[in-house]
Amino acid sequence: MRLLLIEDNQRLADYLATALQNGGFAVDHVTTTADAEGAIATTHYDTLLLDLGLPDKDGLVWLGDQRRRQMTRPVLVLTARDSLEDLVAGLNQGADDYLRKPFELDELIARVRALLRRPGEALGVKLTTGNVSFDTSDREVTVDGVAVEFGRREMDGLELLMRRAGRVVPKSAIEDAIYSFGEDLASNAIEVLVHRIRRRLQDAGADMYIHTLRGVGYVLSDKAAGA
């Protein structure tokens, strides 16, 4: 799942981005609303994390503008403003949730995951396809109840495929969801990643399969239904 962090404090942004990446998310960071608009125009984000005290425009004003333009992505507001009036204003302008600074990183990650579980954004905390289960809260994958170890990016890729089970997931969508702006990628990075996921599933006796559609992308399904 890919997030856009809109925060002008570079030190705080680096701290939050590292925690979110360790929590299984790909994170892009911008410092102004203008840069946020550019990022949103070119990249799909599952959730936005929005600071309010931005240098070029108040975050709430910007959020209200985006909602009027039919921007539907979930938005978690991060702010030091702590009055009830500020909370109400944020929700009225289109915030989906509101987290007051300072906050615990575990709470931040939990709130992001809660937003992703809302209808239209995700399939829930526990994903299941065939005999494979993925607890996205604990970041644990099991096959027939036995835990299987995955690397962080392998787990991110598997989560995306399981959330879209039965549907084609373009290679570009996997790349966008897992890798942040500026990361150097080999031309075959996604193919290698999917190969590793397949191997771990097959070695564990999974009865689901990741099908490759040449030149299009990947589809995850029960093995009996396709492979």
Strand content: 15-25%
CATH architecture tag of the largest domain: 3-Layer(aba) Sandwich
Largest sheet: number of strands, sense, barrel closure: 5 strands, parallel
In the CATH scheme, the class of the largest domain would be Alpha Beta
Distance between the termini: 27 Å
Number of strands: 12
Structural class: alpha/beta
Strand order of the largest sheet: 2-1-3-4-5
Q: If helices are DSSP runs of H or I spanning 4 or more residues, what is the number of helices?
A: 8
Averaging pLDDT over every residue, what do you get? 86
Quickly count the domains.
Answer: 2
Shape: elongated
- Helical percent range? 25-40%
Instruction: Round the Cα radius of gyration to an integer and report it.
Output: 19 Å
Q: What is the CATH superfamily of the largest domain?
A: Response regulator
Structure description:
By secondary structure, the chain is an alpha/beta fold. It folds into 2 domains: 2-116, Rossmann fold (3-Layer(aba) Sandwich), CATH 3.40.50; 126-225, Orthogonal Bundle (Arc Repressor Mutant, subunit A). 39% of the residues lie in helices and 23% in strands. It is built from 8 helices and 12 strands. The chain has helices spanning 10-22, 33-42, 59-68, 84-92, 105-116, 152-163, 171-178, 189-203, and strands spanning 2-6, 26-30, 47-51, 75-79, 97-100, 126-129, 132-135, 140-143, 146-148, 169-170, 208-213, 217-222. The strands form 3 sheets. The chain has a 5-stranded parallel β-sheet with strand order 2-1-3-4-5, sandwiched between helices. Strand 3, helix 3 and strand 4 (75-79) form a beta-alpha-beta unit. Helix 6 packs across helix 8. The mean pLDDT is 86.
